[in-house]
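User: I'm curious whether this sequence folds into something compact or stays loose and floppy. Could you predict its structure so I can see for myself?
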Amino acid sequence: MRLLAVLVGVTSCLGAAEWQPLFNGKDLSGWTMVGPGRFVVEDGALKTEGGMGLLYYDRAQFGNCTLRVVFKVGTGRGNSGVFIRLPEKPKDPWYAVHNGYEVQIEASGDEWHATGSLYSLAQTKLGLQKPAGEWNTMEIELRGQTTVVRLNGVTVNEFRGDQPVPERKHWFEPVRGPRPDSGYIGLQNHDNDSVIYFREVSVRPSGN
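Assistant: Here's the prediction. I'll summarize afterward.
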């Protein structure tokens, strides 16, 4: 299947009017894993297992589009994230942390580190992630240098790439600096205690 052929090797989500699935619900076709953790397919959803890792979509880069991710927290901490704007295919999980943006999933952090934030860079609204076991819908709109995050129908974050960000305080926080208008995307497997399920990962061009 030539999924999203218009996207392969380009940086804009042009050419399709409907949501296009990037995960087929059956296997990891189109996705590549880096790091010690892994993802398995269970009951039609991607499930995190093991330690720190990154599952990235290797067939296209994405810009000027909206990504839709449907996820739920299984057990434990519920720490994970959706990476966007990766300029190159990552060779390890930390490349994504320091060269892209992580749209955070864990609900227990503060405004800079909770669901819908760009981790340690842009604040989110708190309290909108559903309890463990219930599905959440996150939409991430990429519009040039602007990133808009909606969680369960509510806009929780809007960030422009050149706006001021807090000073970097810890080694594990992302290196500050510009990100490209478009890039690869990925899903984070954070740790052994976090179990996250991803039922859908889809993309739609801007203007729909």
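Summary: Helices lie at 93-99. Confidence is low (pLDDT under 50) at residues 1-16.
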